[in-house]
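Support request from a user on the community tier.

User writes: "When I paste my structure tokens into the form, the page sometimes reloads and wipes my input. The last time it worked, I copied everything first. Here is what I submitted, just in case something in the input itself triggers the reload:"
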């Protein structure tokens, strides 16, 4: 109950009505998988370079309804080598 009240308050405060749909109830059989790629594991000095999201309905992954945002970032050769070595050792 408290969650519904909080959601109603947040929706009323919304400055741009185009985003009101974000406060609608989600379908019960639907989730969104989110993935972030970073330049490293330290949040103080590393950056997010890719964010991706895909909708999953029931047992189906809806690849036609995906989102991906990339930041142009120059990757060092050392980082590429490190990732390749980690993948080889798995």
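"...and here is what came back when it finally went through:"
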């Amino acid at each position: 109950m408290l969650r519904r009240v909080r959601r109603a308050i947040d929706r009323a405060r919304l400055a741009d009505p185009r985003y009101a749909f974000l406060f609608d109830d989600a379908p019960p059989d639907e989730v969104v998988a989110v993935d972030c790629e970073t330049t490293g594991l330290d949040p103080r000095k590393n950056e997010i370079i890719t964010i991706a999201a895909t909708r999953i309905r029931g047992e189906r992954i809806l690849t036609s309804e995906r989102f991906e945002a990339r930041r142009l970032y120059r990757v060092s050769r050392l980082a590429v080598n490190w990732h390749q070595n980690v993948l080889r050792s798995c």
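Agent notes: The reload is a front-end session timeout and is unrelated to the input. The chain has a mean pLDDT of 81. Residues 27-89 form a domain with the Nucleotidyltransferase; domain 5 fold (CATH 3.30.420.10). Escalated to web team.
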